[in-house]
Specification:
Helices cover 44% and strands 6% of the residues. With 358 residues, it is mainly α. Among the domains are: 52 residues, no CATH class; 191 residues, no CATH class. A hairpin with a 2-residue loop joins strand 5 and strand 6. The radius of gyration is 52 Å and the shape is elongated. The protein starts with 11 loop residues before the first strand and ends with a strand.
Length: 358
């Protein structure tokens, strides 16, 4: 046996896990193989059974020795993988879409609130014209008879307009409630707050009779003050007050027109026609004022054009004229005799005066 292997007198050996050599344990066990620097297994008797040792015997052909493990070969450098055409698989870069905003229940009507207000104003004007035509027929009927077909046309036009105009006003009121909720939500969000009034409170305040004479103006005033604080037109609050006054006047005229319906005399009924006429005209005015208010909150005028805010500043200096004023001048020819002087005043004849602009 070679010098690295165990002699027969040694009974405890340490096999090498790399080269397989067995080293006799003379004293303290070793950790590394003196030949290949491999790890030495724990000491065990030479003739120990397999269940008492942490290694196993491997049979090799005669004359073949175990060499130290060869270092792993590095793979040959290969070409970087690439494609001859753009692959059709993998992830696609999609542009981020806009955030999906949940649709409100009244969004369909709120988006068309301007069109609804114009239609309502037109129908109330038409109703006022039909009432005016009926009143003219009543005046003509005092002395002359009325043709039945003309009376039928008047009654039909008044009936149809009295149905269509209130129906349009009801649909427009629903659209205005949705617009009010959306406008208040945007006004409070601009100052970093949430609307303290819920949608149910807004609906009840705008729909319940008598209560809707006060609370819509309150809701609009709160929203207008927030918009003005955020830099909107200061005249927005005045528009709210004008609308509020027209709204109250329309409510009073509606009550008056309804009271005229219960009249028994012909003269009072004729006066009721005039009351209905003025009620329809004021209702059309309320619709126009509402349209002006809706566009005013959007920063537009009544015709839908952007508003120009004028800001007045205090002048610190007197005004300076851009063009100097024209003053009379005196010119005379050199061959004329000098004019006579009286004291310090110079006498100039009329033909020697002319106006010279500086």
């Amino acid at each position: 046996m070679n010098g690295g292997q165990v002699r027969s007198r040694s009974t405890v050996v340490q096999p090498c896990a790399r080269c397989g050599a067995r080293w006799a344990v003379q004293g303290k066990p070793l950790h590394w193989c003196p030949r290949c620097r491999g790890v030495l297994l724990s000491p065990a008797p030479v003739d120990a059974p397999a269940d008492r040792r942490n290694y196993r015997w491997v049979a090799r052909p005669p004359g073949r020795r175990t060499h130290a493990a060869q270092p792993a070969r590095r793979p040959a450098v290969v070409e970087t993988p690439h494609y001859h055409q753009i692959p059709q698989w993998g992830l696609h870069d999609r542009l981020p879409g806009e955030a999906v905003v949940p649709r409100r229940p009244l969004a369909a009507l709120t988006d068309r609130v301007g069109t609804a207000l114009l239609a309502t104003a037109g129908l109330f004007v038409l109703a006022a014209l039909t009432e005016l035509g009926r009143y003219g027929i009543l005046l003509h009927n005092r002395t002359r008879l009325i043709q039945p077909w003309l009376l039928w046309i008047s009654d039909a036009s008044v009936t149809v307009s009295s149905i269509l105009a209130p129906a349009a006003a009801l649909v427009t009121a629903v659209a205005l409630v949705g617009w009010l909720a959306q406008t208040r939500r945007a006004a409070y969000a601009a100052v970093g707050q949430a609307d303290p009034r819920s949608l149910r409170i807004l609906i009840l305040g705008c729909v319940v009779p008598v209560v809707n004479l006060v609370w819509p103006g309150v809701f609009l005033t709160e929203a207008a003050r927030l918009r003005i604080a955020d830099g909107a037109d200061p005249r927005l609050l005045r528009s709210v007050r004008i609308w509020w006054g027209a709204w109250l006047l329309n409510a009073v005229l509606v009550v008056v027109a309804v009271c005229y319906r219960f009249a028994s005399s012909l003269q009072v009924q004729a006066d009721g026609v005039l009351a209905s006429l003025w009620t329809d005209l004021v209702a059309a005015g309320v619709a126009v004022a509402s349209l002006a208010l809706v566009r005013g909150f959007a920063g537009l005028d009544l015709r839908g054009r952007p508003k120009t805010v004028h800001r007045w500043v205090i002048a610190t200096e007197p005004a300076r004229p851009v063009i100097e004023p024209v003053s009379p001048g005196v010119t005379g020819s050199a061959d004329r005799a000098p004019s006579a002087s009286v004291g310090n005043d110079e006498v100039v004849t009329a033909d020697q005066q002319e106006v010279v602009a500086k």
